[in-house]
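hey
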C-alpha cells in the first residue's frame, strides 16, 4: 500500500504535469485558469485522508482544460453531482499550495466535501468522512450554517433527496460526536 505522502505526491505530480502542458499549449495568452478538486483527492491534498486514493475529481474548470483531463486521469464525471454541493461552495474553496504556473488549483472546503459525501450512499464515502482527522477539523457551526441555508435547500432536487440527506447528516453527526 502507498503511504499518504506518496499518494499525495502522485496527485501533485499529475496536477503539475497538467499545468505544464497547459502552459506550453497556451503559452502566449496571459490567462490563468482555475480548477476545483473535490472528493478523496482533495482530502489527500489537504492532508485529511490517509488511505489510498488516486482519484482526482474536478468539479470546476474552464472548458479549455477539458482536452487535457483524461491524459492525467482527472475525472470530470463528478459534474453530474453538482447538486450535491451548496451553490456557494466556490466561495469556500481552499488554495492548494503547489508551484503551478498557468492553473491555480483549489480544493473544496472540508465542509463542502463532507456534504457531497453525505449525499452518497457508498460505504467508502461514509468511511472517509468518519476519519477522526476530518471529524476533528470540521467547522461544525459552518457545516450547520451551510445545511440550513435557503440556497442549499433550494438546490436539493426533491423532498425525498432532502429527507435522505438530513437523515444521513443527523446520523453522521451523532456518530462523529461519540
Amino acid at each position: 500500500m502507498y503511504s499518504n505522502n506518496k499518494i499525495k505526491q502522485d496527485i501533485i505530480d499529475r496536477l503539475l504535469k497538467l499545468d505544464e502542458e497547459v502552459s506550453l499549449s497556451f503559452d502566449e495568452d496571459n490567462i490563468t485558469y482555475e480548477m476545483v478538486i473535490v472528493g478523496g483527492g482533495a482530502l489527500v491534498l489537504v492532508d485529511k485522508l490517509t488511505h489510498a486514493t488516486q482519484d482526482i475529481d474536478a468539479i470546476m474548470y474552464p472548458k479549455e482544460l477539458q482536452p487535457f483531463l483524461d491524459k492525467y486521469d482527472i475525472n470530470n464525471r463528478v459534474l453530474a453531482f453538482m447538486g450535491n454541493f451548496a451553490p456557494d461552495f466556490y466561495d469556500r474553496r481552499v488554495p492548494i499550495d503547489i508551484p503551478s504556473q498557468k492553473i491555480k488549483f483549489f480544493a473544496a472546503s472540508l465542509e463542502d466535501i463532507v456534504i457531497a459525501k453525505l449525499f452518497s450512499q457508498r460505504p467508502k464515502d461514509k468511511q472517509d468522512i468518519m476519519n477522526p482527522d476530518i471529524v476533528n477539523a470540521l467547522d461544525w457551526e459552518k457545516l450547520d450554517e451551510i445545511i440550513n441555508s435557503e440556497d442549499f435547500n433550494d438546490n436539493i432536487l426533491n423532498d425525498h433527496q432532502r429527507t435522505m440527506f438530513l437523515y444521513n447528516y443527523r446520523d453522521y453527526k451523532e456518530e462523529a460526536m461519540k
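DSSP finds nine helices and five strands in the chain. The mean pLDDT is 90.
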